[in-house]
Amino acid sequence: HKAKVEAMTLDLASLQSVQHFAEAFKSKNVPLHILICNAGVFGAPWSLTEDDLETTFQVNHLGHFYLVQLLEDVLRQSSPARVVILSSESHRFTEIKDSSGKLDFSLLSPSKKEYWAMLAYNRSKLCNILFSNELNRRLSPHGVTSNAVHPGNMIYSSIHRNWWVYTLLFTLARPFTKSM
């Protein structure tokens, strides 16, 4: 009953917006005990952000990554604190390494010719998992834990709205997944 809620603007498709958000949040001088990174796009047509990065990668992963980096000091000072990163089981269906086993950066922000929406989503979600694991390794000794979670299919969203095929697949799969 004493909670105070305040909305702040943040556009993960703009690293400048992420930076401005972090600065504005820090200026409030309030603790940050829980940071939930849950924004995302799925099945979006190929496009570049104002930062010249593929949109799915930037919105689903890089924007959150940058935000956490910018707020890391606030999280540490707010200890105990937690970062929750919403990922997806689809992270299991991709790879971000080349044939020699090294990270292939061209897979993360592919050209239009190399783009496939589902793979872009899967790769961004794999990056979420890897980031959360490393974040937890580095920050848990300082009282900040990080977890990556798959939200399941409990609440209907329109994340699949960009292409009718995805809408059909989500509709067909829904009876076979967990729900409320």
UniProtKB/TrEMBL annotation:
One of its GO terms (molecular function) is oxidoreductase activity. Keywords: NADP, Oxidoreductase. InterPro entries: NAD(P)-bd_dom_sf, SDR_fam. Belongs to the short-chain dehydrogenases/reductases (SDR) family. This is WWOX oxidoreductase.
